[in-house]
Design goal:
alpha/beta; Rossmann fold; 2 domains; 10 helices; about 20% strand
């Protein structure tokens, strides 16, 4: 069980090297081909981004030569406003970084949210300023009995199957003592050879699902969130911008998310 085609979005930002390093390490682990897609807008070739933007292909291929990963390099249409030219349909997994206000106008506007919403491919979103470290050893699933949660759990199977520890975080308390939803998730994943722990957040109070998730002990050692609660508007805003700064800063871990 593994990803065979991984795609990473490349740009002239200071987050690019960490994103690229992570993509290569994941491709090595899964024996996958890695496609790098240059999504710099025309404005990236002016000012402080210029040298980094111009050297993307050279840097990408230099890392490929050292790593032994089979790669492809593509350049997105600098005038493209949509996702159709970003090659996302031809991958099992996409890798991007949270939008950075400083990158506005320098990265094609469809990346990352519009691509995720339209391409039907799961994406790992790295936090701004993220430093490369192991990802996928201890995973927390933000679970809810929904289509979105079910989709992302199945999209994450190659990572869940390799994890040392998987915890399902359930925000909503059970309807009654006979509610077996999370136990059925446990049995379903066990059928795939994946053992999970369960963390029930039964006293929500005034906390949002995001706040409860980050208050959970399950996240203390976690290195990846599998975002089954993506349909929740506050989660989407926190991941892609538009919320208060303090809540946005809580996203210190990579998030694997599907739509």
């Amino acid at each position: 069980m593994s990803y065979k085609d991984i795609l990473v979005f490349l740009d002239g930002s200071t987050d690019n090297n960490a994103r690229m390093e992570f993509a290569f390490s994941l491709a090595q682990a899964h024996g996958a081909r890695l496609t790098g897609v240059d999504v710099d807008a025309a404005a990236a070739f002016e000012g402080e981004w210029t040298e980094r933007a111009k050297s993307l292909a050279e840097t990408f291929h230099a890392v490929a030569n050292r790593s032994g990963v089979h790669v492809r390099f593509k350049i997105a249409d600098r005038n493209a406003a949509g996702w159709k030219d970003f090659y996302a349909h031809y991958a099992d997994l996409l890798i991007a970084t949270q939008p950075n206000p400083e990158a506005f106008g320098k990265v094609l506007s469809g990346v990352p949210e519009q691509v995720l919403m339209s391409a039907g491919v799961p994406m790992i979103v790295l936090p701004q300023g993220w430093k490369p470290r192991p990802v996928g050893k201890e995973v927390v699933i933000a679970w809810s009995p929904s289509a979105q949660a079910t989709r992302v759990v199945h999209d994450a199977m190659p990572i869940l199957a390799r994890a040392e520890k998987v915890t399902a975080f359930a925000f909503d308390p059970p309807a009654d003592r006979e509610d077996a939803d999370v136990e059925m998730l446990r049995e379903h994943l066990l059928a795939h050879g994946i053992k999970i722990d369960i963390d029930m957040w039964s006293n929500a109070g005034d906390l949002s699902p995001i706040e409860a998730l980050y208050a959970s002990p399950a996240l203390e050692e976690a290195d990846l969130i599998v975002a089954g609660a993506y349909s929740h508007s506050r989660f989407r805003e926190a991941l892609f911008g538009g919320m208060t700064k303090s809540l946005l800063q809580q996203f210190s871990l990579p998030v694997l998310v599907s739509h």
